[in-house]
Specification:
globular, about 90 residues
Length: about 90
């Protein structure tokens, strides 16, 4: 199977990751280039470009190691906007 030689074929693109609870702004340094937004609903959103699947998994492992519950993960690639599902998680997943 062949894929186009772009970052999206390897899981790269812009992602929005919603986390339960508020992360302190000092954590933004740990997530290079990602914006960290604390929302009024008690969640935090990390948003930014991720180069490939390996980088995405690395980021998710870092969040797991911090013990931060994942609420959702959404790929925001403009070419596919509106067609990508949001992966919702529930406690215990």
């Amino acid at each position: 199977m062949t894929h186009p030689a772009d970052s999206t074929s390897h899981g790269g693109g812009t992602y929005s990751i919603r986390l339960a609870g508020h992360l302190h702004p000092r954590w933004a340094v740990r997530f290079d280039g990602m914006t960290l937004t604390r929302l009024d609903d008690g969640t935090t959103v990390l948003e930014g470009d991720i180069t490939d699947q390996a980088a995405l998994h690395g980021l998710l492992h870092s969040l797991r190691d911090l013990g931060v519950p994942l609420v959702s993960l959404t790929r925001l690639d403009p070419a596919e906007q509106g067609t990508n599902p949001t992966i919702e998680t529930t406690p215990g997943d």
